[in-house]
Amino acid sequence: TYLSGSERTPVRFQIETRIDALEGLGSTIQENVDGAWWEALFVPRRSSARRRSLFAIYDTNALDIKDMVYILKTCVLSEDFSGEHDNFWQGVKKPVTGLVGATTDLMWLCLRCAQDGYVDSWELEQIKAQVAAVRESQIDLHAAFKRVSPIVSEDLSEENTFIFALSYWSRKVIDFAEHLVDSNQTTLAIYWGAFKAMRKALEETWAPGRIFRSNHLKFCFRNLCSIMVCFFIGYFSDAGFFTRYDSTMAVTLTLLHVSDGSHHVEYEKCMHRLLGVALGKSLPIIINGFSNIFACGSMQRNIFQGLSTWIFVFSGCFLYYDSAMWSYVGCLVGGFGIPGLVGPCMGNASDAVIVAKYKEIGSFIVAIIIQALLHTAMSRRSARLLLGEKMHHLGGAVKAGYEGIFEQDIPKVEEAVKLANKHLDRVKALAPECDTRVQLFRGRSTDFKDELCQCLITSWEYLVRELRMLEVAVKDWEALTQQEDGVNEEVTFGMLQMLNDRPSMEDVREDILSSVELVTQIAPEMLSGNSAHLAHARLLRLGTVQASSRLKAASRLYEELAWSTKSIRGEKEELTDDVRVRATIAVRGLEHAAYHLSKMEERCIKEATSVAATMSFGQ
Predict the structure, then answer these.
(1) Does residue 204 surpass a pLDDT of 80?
(2) What's the CA gap between 171 and 578, in Å, rounded?
(3) Cβ(398)–Cβ(460) under 8 Å?
(4) What is the rounded distance in angstroms from the CA atom of residue 402 to the CA atom of residue 398?
(5) Where are the alpha helices (DSSP H) in 379-504?
(6) Average of pLDDT values for 435-456?
(7) Distances (CA, A) of 434 to 268, 425, 526, 527, 557
(8) How confident is the model over 31-85, as pLDDT tens digits?
(9) CB 337 within 8 A of CB 357
(10) CA gap 558, 563 in Å, rounded
(11) Which burial class, exposed, middle or buried, applies to 526 when counting CB atoms under 10 A from its CB (0-12, 13-18, 19+)?
């Protein structure tokens, strides 16, 4: 509705907010579905296991279009409604509305079938009829699109992006519907799927390649050292609040182990451990003190103990699921506190019992402190240095992906996208731990530049998504339409070859790769915390930095592609297979990559100039 208008309106900000709200939803659902594989072994009804299987497939398709949705946000925010926009939308508005309606109906129909885990013959006929309606709408949209946009056009690049993303979503929904039609899982197949999931989990846990990995061995060694130190203290020490042959400290650390792959001390998590364990052991003592007002076995005591236990468990669970900052504390309070609430009635406990409980709390705290100290001694890098290293790896993966585009190497691009997403997730996880406010002491390091970090992470995220969009646009897909013999027709036109054969691509290559290389080198240094590195010399020599929000050769590349694609016959019936659309999307992806790189360079230049000015004033 917004793009079919004639001018910018505040509606674009509502669209942006709704798209941002999708962040993290798909991955969370996928984790929950993957974690429920074992239920297929015990469910009394076969439909329950099948329902989870269908939801897993739907979520996989949803994650495939997630990057497309975020690209749409850029498209909506960038559209200026100039040029041939009005004529374009007058020609495609009706088929676009038809495709959106047909695809939406098919999506909800499939979800209703997936909810009960069973697709009967009447539902199968409905799905097949709706799939045919969606394909007919795709054909209508493609025909209308060819009439209003017959050549590769820079003016209609954002409109092309929207149409392409819409067709991609429609195609994914059709794939899910066809899976529903083709799948007819038996009980044996469901149990076999559960067995494969269990086997995969065992292989991931006990695979020699994973066990003997360097990071995993360090993880085992760190936890083993802290557990063994606490074990020997509990075995030999009999002074102060230590009791000989007490396993409390060692057992506690088996539940509070250091994270696998952690190379730095998580001071905030250590503080949360101290707080959670202390409260989890102290609060039951206070609650039991109030319980002792009533006689053992009395109705009043039973009611009070049951109600207080329920409130205690509810509070811990609510904190765990609803608090972003204190969820870990809520988990520990609930886990360590329940045993103290459900113990036998001891009436008015003697001083010896109270002293023993507080000795136990002291043992817990000493165990956590020992763990933190040993982890500190064994950590080679701070969170900032590790963040800089991971961001450097992220930049290397992004650079490899764009190199794959220019080298016409699709497998290299696919691998780079996977690797870049992995490093991006790690960078996002490390950023909050670098905050100066959660560090034990600052020392000589400067305050962490949180604003710069968030700006860079956002730009890296958009770069990865643009790279994913490029991968989708240039990859030779199989068309959904079939030949009379039932064999899918393949798109054999080499998109990457066509792009890289254009003379302007050499300039595009130089601009993109030089900017990626510069940001990859500079950004990690700016976040390392060493002030001597912040005023990077190359950034201060502004003549050597592009920092241009436009890709200089983009206009020439559009013209060259428009000329070279004139002779291509548009015989495809689906937009995601149309060579002209895919070429437009590819150039548009390169344009937006240059834009996000320029924003990163601009932010780094400002930061370097600011630090240089501060240092000169200080001198």
Answers:
(1) no
(2) 14
(3) yes
(4) 6
(5) 383-406, 410-430, 450-474, 495-500
(6) 75
(7) 10, 15, 13, 9, 42
(8) 555 555 555 555 544 555 566 666 666 666 666 677 777 777 878 888 888 888 8
(9) no
(10) 9
(11) buried
DSSP state of 325: S
Residues 6+ apart with CB under 8 A from 610: none
Joined together, the tokens standing for residue 132 give: 């045919």
Which residues have a Cβ under 8 Å from the Cβ of 515 and sit 6 or more positions away? 546, 594, 597, 598, 601
> Which range, of 113-127, 263-277, 431-445, 478-492, averages the lowest pLDDT?
478-492
Specify the pLDDT at position 349: 60
* Confidence grade of residue 403 (pLDDT, cut at 50, 70, 90): very high
CA dist., res. 559 & res. 502, Å (int)? 10
Would you say 80 and 2 are in contact if contact means Cβ atoms under 8 Å apart? no
Beta-bridged to residue 490, according to DSSP, are: 478
**With b meaning 16 or more CB within 10 Å and e meaning fewer, what string describes 446-466?**
eebbeebbebbbebbbbbbbb
- Token pair in block for residue 317: 């669970």
Q: Exposed, middle or buried, 316 (CB in 10 Å: 0-12/13-18/19+)?
A: buried
- Report the SS3 class of residue 292: coil
Question: Which residue do the tokens 């209508």 mark?
Answer: 140
Would you call 513 helix, strand, or coil by DSSP? helix
| Residue 182 buriedness (CB in 10 A; 0-12 / 13-18 / 19+) | exposed
| Residue 507: C-alpha distances to residues 55, 497, 535, 598 (Å) | 45, 16, 29, 16
pLDDT band per the 50, 70, 90 thresholds, residue 102: very high
Total-model pTM: 0.74
Q: For residues 597-617, give the mean pLDDT.
A: 72
* Owner of token pair 């490029």: 470
Residue count of the chain: 619
Nearest-angstrom CA–CA distance, 258 and 141: 55
The pLDDT confidence band at residue 573, using thresholds 50, 70 and 90, is: low
Q: What single DSSP character describes residue 445?
A: P
* Beta pairing partners, 494: none
Contacts for 452 with CB less than 8 Å, ≥ 6 apart = 526, 527, 603, 607
Contact 424, 460 (CB under 8 A): yes
Cβ neighbours of residue 272 closer than 8 Å, sequence gap 6 or more: 326, 328, 329, 332
Q: What is the largest CA-CA distance in the chain?
A: 95
Give the bridge partners for 488, in sequence order: 482
